[in-house]
Amino acid sequence: MLFDSHAHYNDERFDGDRDEVLSSMTENNVGLIMNSCSSLDEVPLIFDICEKYPFVYASVGIHPHEVENLTENDMTKLMEYAKNPKVKAIGEIGLDYYYNFSPRETQKKWLERQVEIAKEIHMPVIIHDRDAHKDCMDILRDCSVREAGGVFHCYSGSVEMAREIIDWGMYIAFGGSLTFKNSVRPVEVAKYAPLDRILIETDCPYLTPVPHRGERNSSLYIHYVAERLAEIKGVTPREIEEATFENAKKCFNITEGEAAL
Ligand code: NI
Prior knowledge:
This protein has about 260 residues and is of the alpha/beta class. It contains nine helices and eight strands.
C-alpha cells in the first residue's frame, strides 16, 4: 500500500466529490494519508475527514502564508487541537520567500515558535521551504529541530542541504515535481537520499504529476511519484512503496494497530 505523506483534502477543490475520492483510496492501493493543515480555520473540516476515514491522519499548524496576524492565543488553540489522537505532526510550517504573503520577519518568528511547540509536545514537524533555504536551515539548526524530527515536504533544496537534514534524522519528501521534464535538482537529491529517509507525497490538489498535469491532483496519482522514484533509484516500484510506507509511519509515529488497514 502507498502512503501519501502530504495532502489537503479540506481544500475547496474537493467540495464536490470529497467522499467519492476518499472512498476509492483503499481499492486503489492507497493505504494511509497525512492531511496537512495550513491554518487553524481548516481544523474542524480536517477533523471531520479524519473521523470518517480511519486511514487519514492530520497535522495542525500555520503555513507561512497565513502567519501575519497570529497571536499567542492561536498557539494555545494549536496545542489544544494537537491533543486530538489523529494529529501526528505540527505543520505545515516554514518560510515562503517566493510569494512573501507574510513579512519575512513574521514568518521566521512563527516558524521558530511552532518548532518550539512541536518539541514541547513531542511531535514531528512538516516543513514548507520555498526559496528560503538558507534562513530556513539557520532557524531550524538554531532551534534544534532534530529534537522534534519530521519531514521537508516537496523538497527543493540541494544535495548538500539534504545531507544535513538526513543527519538530523529527518525525512525528505518527493512529489509531483519529480516527474516534470525540467526537474533536475530533485532528481539529483532522489539519487543521493538513502531509501530509508524518503517519503512520497502528492500535495493534492496541487502539483499534479505527469501525465496528468493540468488536472486536479489526488492521492490516486501518488503511484506516478513512486514509479519515477523507482526509475531514478534503480529499484522496483514495490520496493519504493514498502520503504516509503514504513518511513512515513516512523516519521509520524503511527503504530501498526492505529493504521486500520
Ligand atoms: Ni501542502
